């Protein structure tokens, strides 16, 4: 009969049984991944349903039950993931802004690599802004309505716009005719701010003088930015950025700057 030395790796029957029970109780990796995938799919469906509901009814008309039914899940699953109505609203807004930010980043990257003149870059930037607002009109309008009560609700939109403007400043800094304009960065940023204000004002003010059609709206906003920047019209590079006294040109009327298709 062989002696079993102290400290041997041989386990007692009780320890082996306990180890087996622990192994059996641990879910397989593929089961955990499947559960995680289903949970993520449910959360995405709820957020997508929330965005669709906001666009149709705004914040005031938000029905948590309707959102859950639209997503094909239960209202209990909705509250389990987001806590309460306010938590769900914030999550939906974050999802909406993430989509807008991704669209903006993708299109700005395309714009700044494909266009060879500052006029084309500015025109493409404005076209992008108008398209993004049109695509996410329901989200912007819902946030704007909420901001009338809680101004902080507009802060994510402001940050998004400021980031896009900084990207535009960076893209235009490679053009000598732009950097030759005195205080060009400040003038550009204020011009973009004025264009954004006019664009958002038109969302809730039916009497706003901004054209409704896409092409006409882009044309007006483009000219507003270019005119305030003092960028010479195409074909007159080196002229018009300053007045006869060498000072930055005053805000021009729309007839002085041609639009680039």
UniProtKB/TrEMBL annotation:
Residues that span the membrane, as ranges: none
Residue ranges occupied by any HTH tetR-type domain in the UniProt entry: 40-100
Domain of life: Bacteria
Matches recorded under SUPFAM superfamilies: Homeodomain-like (SSF46689)
GO molecular function, one term: transcription cis-regulatory region binding
InterPro entries, alphabetized: Homeodomain-like_sf, HTH-type_TetR-like_transc_reg, HTH_TetR
Cited Pfam families: TetR_N
Family matches, as Gene3D superfamilies: Tetracycline Repressor, domain 2 (1.10.357.10)
Keyword Transcription regulation: yes
Keyword Transit peptide among UniProt keywords: no
Stretches for region Disordered: 1-30, 239-261
Compositional bias (Basic and acidic residues): 12-23
Keywords tagged on the record: DNA-binding, Transcription, Transcription regulation
Ranges annotated as DNA-binding: 63-82
PANTHER family according to UniProt: HTH-TYPE TRANSCRIPTIONAL REGULATOR BETI, HTH-TYPE TRANSCRIPTIONAL REGULATOR RUTR
Record protein name field: Transcriptional regulator, TetR-family
